[in-house]
Every structure is written in C-alpha cells, then in structure tokens.
Amino acid sequence: MIENNKGNDDMSHRKIFDFLGNQKFNVKIDVKKEDENKKEDKHIEKAPDRLEVLKLIEQYEREGLFDVDPEKDPPTIVLTPGQVDYLRKKYLSKVKTKLAYSVGKQFLDAMLKNNKLIIKKINGIENWDAVNSGAIITCNHFNPFDCFTVEKIFRETKHYKEKKYLYKVIREGNYTNFPGFYGFLMRNCYTMPLSSNRHVMKEFLDAQKEALQHGDFILMYPEQSLWWNYRKPKPLKDGAFKLAVKTKVPVVPIFITMEDSNIIGDDGFYVQEYTVNILPAIYPSGGLTDRENAINMKNANYDAWKDMYESFYKEPLKYTTDPEILKELL
Q1: Tens digit of each residue's pLDDT, the chain (330 residues)
Q2: Nearest-10 crossing angle of helices 146-154, 91-113
Q3: Is CATH 3.40.50 the classification given to domain 47-75+82-329?
Q4: Cβ count near 188 (within 10 Å)
C-alpha cells in the first residue's frame, strides 16, 4: 500500500489509480452449498448474540427506546480536528479511497454471488434519477450491510454515471475504532463520521454542505439506531431534515422491505430478500420557517415509509409501545 507520495513524483495520480483499479484482491466469503441451507433444514442453531439482540429489540419497542442501539458497537475514540478528510481532497485519501472501492466492490459482488446479500427487486429508481441536485438519502437501518445495498442501487442511477458521489454518515466509533477489513472500508469508502468534538462537527457540517452543493448525495439514517432485521419504520430524528432545509435540497426516502429466503445463514436465521423501494423526493416548501419545513419533511418521510410498510406487508403498522409514549415520539 502507498503510504505517501515521496519517490512517486514520476507517477501521475491517474497512473496510480489505474494501477490500483487493475489489482485483484482475494475477497472470500465462506458459504455453505445452497442445498445444505434449504428451508427444510432446521438443524442450524440460532446464534446466541442474535437471539439476545432480538430480545432487546422487543424490550426497546415496548419502552419506546427506538433510538437505542442493541448492538455492541466498538468504544468511541474521539476524533480530533483535521483528522478526517471528509471530501477526500488529499492525495493519499484519494489513493486509499480508490483501493477501498476496488476491494469493496469485490466484497459486495461476493456477498451477492454467495447469497449473503439478496436484492430481490428495485422499485422507483426513476425517483432518484428525477432529482437534479444533491440530496439527502434516508433509509431504514436494520443491518450493518444495508449501506452496501444502497451503494449498489446508487450505481444503477444516472448520477453515478455523471461522476457524483454517495457519502455515508457513520458513528464516530465505527470510524475510529473498527478493526480490520471492515474498519478500512469504514474509513475510506466516502464515509462521513459524526463526532462528539464540536470542532470536528463543524468540519463535518461544512463538508456536507459542500458535497450537496456539488450535486452529491449523503446517506443518513434518521432513525439513529440499527435494529437487526426489524421490519417496521421507527420514529425519526430531525437532523437529516434540518440539513436538507438549510442547504435547500430534497430528501429521497428509501424503505427496504424484507422476506425470508429459502437459505439459512450461518447465524441460524433465514437470509432476507430485500425489495428496495425508492420513494418520490420530498422538497422544502416556501412560506415556512426552517423549523416548520424540517418537521414537515420529517413527517412526510415517516408517512411515506409507513405507507410502504402497510402496502408491502399487508398489515397496519402497530407498535407495542405505550400509546402515550408513542405520541411523544411521532
């Protein structure tokens, strides 16, 4: 891996990028043969950590703690000013991003080939293509790899062909303290880490505004929690919508619905088949204050997700949360 540009003055950026793009990285995913994982096979023990997460999700829904993450995330190491090259402007950042994208593409292709990730259907890609500016992309968050799904769909849009980028907002600890291969992707695949350092957050917000003005897209999870394989939309936070109003860009809601496949994963649960539903863009309205606009856009996003949930699953959206608590959240 190239650590710096010393001694490489005779090699242009393009030559380095072409060199990295032509490399082959061995990305392997261990997977059982399909006939070993048919639905009839009930002998794969369910992973204890997944059972514990599902139990916590049931508890958190009852208690209305929709923004609490039941997963055991890595501890947060606080970012310092200048540590993150949010828009990948530095030479070394560009090289690492090229490398990460090459490896990440192979990893994604391997997941799809081996049915670790199954995208059954894409609805509404014309809604993304219809946007003629930068935009906030919102998505329900139910799997660490759902960002790979959105990235895969983005590459089918006209915007990818027009050399626009899809940035992904991630938590601080995932950027600073995630180990190994996944940590490398977390730090280098156009991610934008949040931070508990207010000076870094200024850099974060400035970079978001610049990216949107350039016509790029930012993937945000306004539920602010990952609930594994949770099918319902959760109450939304304001942040994504405040940013959309402030930068005068639309929000494109994506709601991914799920069905059991006929394949049992290594965790003992059925691998989910995803239908990616890209819904019509939501635009700020004239004549409203920024706060009113953000609230209206947030409610419109939630309503669009709710309607898609009820249409796909053929059942009304209901929570086990106490109605008085839920009223305060929605």
Answers
A1: 333 443 443 333 344 334 334 434 444 444 444 444 444 455 689 999 999 999 999 999 999 999 999 998 878 899 999 999 999 999 999 999 999 989 988 999 999 999 999 999 999 999 999 999 999 999 999 998 899 999 999 999 999 999 999 999 999 998 998 888 888 998 999 999 999 999 999 999 999 999 999 999 999 999 999 999 999 999 999 999 999 999 999 999 999 999 999 999 999 999 999 999 999 999 999 889 999 999 999 999 999 999 999 999 999 999 999 999 999 998
A2: 100
A3: no
A4: 20
Question: Tokens at residue 82, please?
Answer: 């200048």
Pair of tokens at residue 322: 């106490």
SS3 category, 175? helix
User: Is 216 in contact with 164 (CB distance < 8 Å)?
Assistant: yes
Identify whether the C-beta of residue 235 lies closer than 8 Å to the C-beta of residue 302: yes
Structure tokens at 327: 């009223």
- Domain ranges for the chain, please list them: 47-75+82-329
